[in-house]
Design brief:
Layout (H helix, E strand, L loop, with lengths): L5 E4 L2 E4 L7 H13 L11 E2 L11 E3 L2 E5 L2 E4 L2 E4 L5 H17 L1 H4 L15
């Protein structure tokens, strides 16, 4: 069995712990390691979330900073929910796609553009 303790994406970090009592330990260790490289944790942006079954975690205080729990969190452009339901993410993406298609209306409705210019081949 392999234990993943952190996964790094760009300048974001995800810490995975299996019990709530490990939140302060993991967050404090991350803060300590980051400081070795001159990096600082943005405590106002740092959140904790239960990604499985179980209750919402309690707020955690790390080095005098309160880290708030959340049910939903946008991480790298995707909504992560505690209830494992992707409907809000699907709805958001469909809305984005609909908005993009709506902005193309002025292009499709231009009578001076031919069908091949619009990318349509009617042959």
């Amino acid at each position: 069995m392999h234990t993943c303790t952190d996964i790094d994406y760009a300048d974001d970090v995800t810490l995975l712990v299996d019990t709530q009592d490990k939140y302060p330990i993991a967050l404090s260790a991350m803060d300590e390691e980051a400081s070795k490289f001159g990096l600082h944790v943005s405590w106002s942006k740092t959140k904790i979330q239960n990604l499985g079954c179980g209750p919402t975690p309690f707020p955690v205080v790390v080095n005098g900073n309160t880290v708030e729990p959340v049910q939903d969190f946008t991480y790298l452009g995707s909504i992560q929910t505690s209830n494992r339901n992707s409907s809000s993410e699907c709805t958001r993406r469909i809305g984005h796609a609909g908005g993009v298609m709506k902005r193309l209306d002025h292009f499709w409705n231009q009578p001076n553009l031919t069908m091949p210019t619009k990318g349509l081949n009617l042959a």
